[in-house]
TrEMBL record:
Pfam families noted in UniProt: SBP_bac_11
Keyword Endoplasmic reticulum: no
The protein, known as: Molybdate ABC transporter substrate-binding protein
Gene (name only): modA
Family (UniProt): Belongs to the bacterial solute-binding protein ModA family.
Organism annotation: Bhargavaea beijingensis
Signal peptide: 1-19
Length: 254
């Protein structure tokens, strides 16, 4: 009798482990740059229609902070980054499968304001009064791109004391929309979705192209789901949504 009870207990334990594994396979965890919020929002119902039993958990933030979370053990299956540098570091540290890394979008920087402002970006930044919202250059890819662009144009140091720093791309947009900052340097894709800011002009490119790469976790709990979402993102439907939201396609495509 004791042997039968032990066998039954072992069977229940194995059944419990199997149920847990199956449940885990029904969750897809994606860490995504904040500037991709609307693109992912469009793709979620499309993916869910073909994967009705999969729960999507999306963690948005700046790519650098998302990478730090991954390095600290945060679970994820797919990383959608606004920074080639951050995904490269995740690959080097063994968190991303290098063979799965693929660029899926590009972006540009624009100067915006809640008011209509005439003049070139350089002239406006040199002469206009008021604060300018930018991303944190040390922890937000948008901020690093902004600093690189403005420094190359000789504008970064003269703006010292007028900069307001945001924790991610969407916070910078919010500062500009609300008037908490008179101007903001944001991605072109964020300017496209906002009806509260006006584009003054495009910033000159810095030395680092603004490329968005994706990569699957080296130890993904749901590799099939991650692979399917990545195929959706890089396929015809995903590319159309990416373009609709103001991003450029890899290689300068529209």
């Amino acid at each position: 009798m004791k042997k039968l009870i032990a066998l039954a207990a072992a069977a229940l334990l194995l059944a419990g482990c199997g149920a847990s594994d199956t449940a885990g396979d029904q969750t897809l965890r994606i860490s995504a740059a904040a500037s991709l919020t609307d693109v992912i929002g469009e793709l979620e119902p499309v993916f869910s229609e073909s994967h009705p039993d999969t729960e999507l958990i999306i963690n948005y933030g700046s790519s650098t902070k998302l990478r730090a979370q991954i390095e600290q053990g945060a679970p994820f299956d797919l990383f959608l980054s606004a920074s080639s540098e951050d995904i490269g570091k995740a690959v080097q540290a063994g968190y991303i499968d290098e063979d799965t890394v693929v660029p899926f979008a590009e972006n540009r920087l624009v100067l915006v304001s809640a008011d209509r402002v005439d003049g070139s970006v350089g002239d406006v930044l040199r002469s206009a009064d008021g604060n300018i919202a930018v991303g944190q250059p040390d922890s937000v890819p948008l901020g690093a791109y902004t600093k690189e662009s403005l420094a190359a144009a000789g504008l970064w140091d003269p703006l010292d004391g007028r900069l307001v720093y945001g924790k991610d791309a969407r916070q910078v947009l919010t500062y500009a929309e609300s008037g908490n900052a008179d101007f903001g340097v944001i991605y072109r894709s964020d300017a496209v979705i906002s009806d509260k800011v006006n584009v003054v002009g495009e910033l000159p490119p810095g030395g680092t192209p603004i490329v968005y790469p994706a990569g699957m976790a080296e130890q993904a709990e749901n590799p099939d789901g991650a692979r399917d979402f990545l195929q959706l993102l890089t396929g015809d439907q995903g590319r159309q949504i990416i373009a609709d939201y103001g991003f450029a396609l890899p290689g300068g495509g529209k």
